[in-house]
Amino acid sequence: MIGADHAGFELKELLLKPLSAQGVRWKDVGTFSSESVDYPDFAFKVAQAVSKGRATFGLLICGTGIGMSITANRLSGVRAALCNDLYTARMARAHNNANILALGSRVVGFGLAQAIVQTFMETTFEKGRHLRRIKKMDGGCS
Ligand code: RB5
User: Fold this and answer.
1) Which CATH number characterizes residue 13's domain?
2) Quick check: pTM over 0.90?
């Protein structure tokens, strides 16, 4: 599932084309123009779907990716990672089992954004000690 605000709209449209060409199945929850909107509305739609198991992965795009990631991480079971470089995208999956990728359209260009999405999708969670740590995230403070 994919969502963006007005700042991320253009990059969302650009990223959807190669994803479609690869046969990746996705649902686009908007926004569908460059008219100003509020990013939490779209972050919650995608994060709710991931939180309830209706979507395996989410992609959220705003100007920086910050507002989207902060909002998405308020929902239970969501691990949204703001990745504006390839190393972070790989680690977000391998170590943190991130289930939502947040991108900043005003930070990365299309080519890098596409490579980040690809890296995020191709990298698998390493489990082991990382699984123990992720379980602690949901256990709260002790
Ligand atoms: C919109 O101007 C901008 O604030 C938003 O896209 C995002 O960067 C917020 O975190």
Assistant:
1) 3.40.1400.10
2) yes
